[in-house]
Design goal:
- There is one protein chain.
- The protein is of the alpha/beta class.
- It has 12 helices and 13 strands.
- Helix 1 packs across helix 2.
- The chain is elongated and about 85 Å long.
Length: about 350
């Protein structure tokens, strides 16, 4: 069965009013008609199955009511939580979200941004760490539309929303130190990522504050995957068989860390305590349940959209990054504290 869109002219003709009157009644314009006439127009529109033409409306209002989202790997659990919350928040404000997915390395970042701009989005949210050192993308975001980013933007000029990952890593490492650990390894994400360097700095801050000098031998770079983290864990065990704790930069990598420790017959937490980052929904269901820094991905999505909509409306951007607090959710993998308890890191100036 063929389908077609019902035009506003058809509604006006059936209701016996002018096109302009029908348009103002159905699109919320300022029009003086009787309540009976307005009700008749609305009833006709409903009976015909009329839906407003947002494209035509955008030409009049000079707004598409659409937000562009530049995304890295949308299948990533953290990004998907952010994207879902952002879309729902935008929809509550009667905005749609158009997603541009980057290639794995982000080489097409400028092309994706240009695509969104050409489709006349009202603003853009950048949620792709691949772009944090891309000056071409940064210039596009500064120059053409209001924008918000979750990650570092070269040259600044784009408001940031995120969390203080340095304070979070410090909180996690301090927890391990309080449990009596002095040989604490770390499995990081790729060093080129700002979030990784922030977390590494926080880990080192906590060690130095406790009189423990950080050493390269206990720091191994990985690639965000369980397989890469398992290999990194095996290397840590080779470098320091006496290591008693590991701070890992993501829950996904923690799966590989736990697997490698089990293969090496190291009990968690009796032999090696493990603390991770992100607190993904699966963390509490691992064996043992995973102690992890809870990063508020959904709230970040809500705040990013709210900030962008205010920028679109002409409000000045905040002078400082909007950094949401993280919490350490204590479970069985660290062997200390009551499972399910939380402690919070204060907000600060260093985000992702």
């Amino acid at each position: 069965m063929s389908r077609r869109y019902v035009s506003l002219k058809e509604v006006a003709a059936r209701a016996g009013v002018s096109f302009q009157t029908a348009s103002k009644v159905l699109n919320g314009g300022n029009v003086r008609v009787s309540a009976d006439t307005a009700a008749r127009i609305i009833a006709v529109a409903e009976s015909l199955g009329y839906r407003p033409n947002t494209v035509a409306r955008s030409l009049v209002q000079r707004s598409t009511a659409t937000i562009g989202l530049i995304a890295g790997d949308i299948t990533d659990g953290a990004l998907s939580q952010f994207a879902v919350a952002a879309e729902r928040t935008a929809r509550r404000s009667e905005h749609a979200v158009l997603v541009g997915n980057l290639s794995e390395g982000g080489e097409d970042g400028a092309a994706v941004v240009q695509m969104l701009i050409e489709r006349r989005v009202d603003g853009v949210i950048a949620a792709a760490p691949q772009l944090e050192d891309d000056p071409e993308v940064a210039e596009l975001l500064r120059r053409y539309v209001p924008a918000v980013s979750l990650h570092h933007v070269p040259g600044g000029g784009v408001p940031l929303v995120g969390s203080n990952h340095r304070d979070g890593a410090r909180l996690a490492t301090e927890h391990l130190i309080r449990l009596g650990h002095t040989s604490i390894g770390t499995v990081t994400g790729p060093f080129r990522r700002h979030v990784v360097r922030s977390r590494l700095h926080g880990y080192e801050d906590a060690l130095r504050a406790a009189g423990i000098e950080p050493g390269e031998v206990l720091t191994v770079e990985s690639d965000w995957t369980p397989g890469g983290a398992a290999a990194a864990t095996r290397l840590l065990l080779q470098r320091d068989p006496a290591m008693t704790a590991i701070f890992v930069h993501s829950d996904t990598m923690a799966i590989g860390v736990l697997s490698a420790l089990a293969a090496a017959h190291r009990r968690v937490p009796a032999d090696v305590a493990v603390v991770s980052c992100d607190d993904m929904p699966f963390a509490e269901y691992l064996t043992p349940s995973l102690t992890s820094l809870r990063v508020p991905f959904a709230e970040t999505g809500e705040r990013a959209v709210g900030l962008l909509l205010r920028s679109i409306a002409g409000e000045p951007p905040p002078a400082e990054p909007v950094l949401l607090p993280v919490e350490l959710i204590v479970r069985d993998s660290c062997g200390g504290g009551e499972s399910g308890t939380a402690s919070q890191a204060p907000t600060g100036q260093e985000g992702s």
